Amino acid sequence: MSAQSDQVEAVLRRLGAAGTVRTFDQEVPTAAAAAERLGCDVGAIANSLVFVAGDEPLLVLTSGAHRVDTGHLARLLGVAKIRRASPERVLEATGQQVGGVAPVGHPAPLRTVVDVWLEKYDVVWAGAGDHLSMFPTNFAELVRLTGGQPTQVSP
To answer: H-helix or E-strand containing 22?
Structure first.
């Protein structure tokens, strides 16, 4: 495992997460690649996407079957505009690179929303800090681990 996935694993243990980090022999940087590797529906992959809301990073945990509607989400959250964070801003905010961002293990807490679509799945797979690692969880645990706000991320 990488230093990032080791850190994510440690945070998951500290927070009492049920699942353990699984490391693959090939990268799984997209929801489609992860779903294929795991043999699950792409919707059961929790994409960790970083946006900028105002001047602050915003972590959106969304189903791999969804696109985030930034206008809709901005209205729900009461911010003027939400835009996708640059890869550099993602790394700065999370300590992890795009395609491997975990819901936890960041240098500082991030405002987080969790796509309610993920509640449809008994098991949800989330990134574990690098392109080779993921961990199983579920919607309720994701909300608890992140302190995230359950949200409909697109109308």
So the answer is: strand 22-23
Do residues 48 and 127 make contact, with C-beta atoms less than 8 angstroms apart?
yes
Spatial distance between the Cα atoms of 52 and 50, rounded to a whole number of angstroms: 7
Distance, in Å, from the CA atom of 117 to the CA atom of 108, rounded to the nearest integer, reads: 26
| Spatial CA neighbour of 61 closest among 22, 95, 112, 10 | 112
> Alpha-carbon distance 101 to 131, whole Å?
8
> Comparing C-alpha atoms, which of 2, 1, 68, 58 is closest to residue 31?
68
Give the chain's residues under pLDDT 50: none
Structure tokens at 147: 């302190």
Q: Per DSSP, what are the bridge partners of residue 68?
A: none
Query: Residue-wise over 31-47: b if at least 16 C-beta within 10 A, else e?
Result: bebbbebbebebbbbbb
- Predicted model pTM: 0.95
